[in-house]
Amino acid sequence: MAEAKRAGKVTLVGAGPGDPDLLTVKAARLIGAAEVVVYDRLVSPEILALIPPQTERIYAGKALGNHHLIQDEINDLLLGLAQAGRDVVRLKGGDSFVFGRGSEEALHLARHGIAFEVIPGISAAAGCSTYAGIPLTHRGLATGVQFVTGHLREDRELELDWGKLADPATTLVIYMGLQALPEISAHLIAAGLAPDTPAAAIENGTTPRQRRVTGTLATLSDLTRAMGLQAPTLIVIGAVVSLSEDLDWFTAQHATP
Ligand SMILES: C[S@@+](CC[C@H](N)C(=O)[O-])C[C@H]1O[C@@H](n2cnc3c(N)ncnc32)[C@H](O)[C@@H]1O
Question: What is the pTM of this model?
């Protein structure tokens, strides 16, 4: 009788925001020994360059507006590879469990009896704000942080608790918020957050392509437009942004003499 094929294992690996030196030791080891890597649009070219030439690479990028369908296909792709006996490194930008849909992929595998592991990565909130000289908390300026997504689902209104988010004592970090920034700013101001609250946008954070713009809640949207910022861009709103000029170690280090 033919032996049943051993199923492979899927390891969800958080690749961090872009700088390859921000990979965990475990992530770097797994990438360097991978049999097959399934990766997202957000994984930086510098990190993709660490995948050995003999490793099979499968791109699983997502087109805007078509998330749902494609996510199902990605779930099935991972399942199919594992059922065929392949050990898969599933490489995702930032941390797989922070607005990364990694938990949906892991649930799909769990429901089909496939073994999986999850390796945390540095999420954009931590990586990009630090490389932009913005501490997410600072004594006297912010006692906490709120992470939200500003992604508009199928042209629906953003369903966020604006009253809770418009808190001058906490820092607000918005993932996928560039497109809806005019609406987000208007909602926060209407909910009572001062229009002159410091605010920043960070594009391609932690990479040599990083661009940062700072302004206020009232001005940031126009500033991002004037600079032509594109995804991936992270928005940070709160008094801590006022420290960014003094703490901007990254631009200082990369300034051409
Ligand atoms: C689908 S979410 C994925 C978040 C990811 N799982 C994480 O933990 O960072 C994509 C959003 O993360 C933010 N982002 C991720 N990497 C970034 C980077 N290098 N620079 C700026 N924003 C980034 C942007 O807001 C982008 O639209």
Answer: 0.94
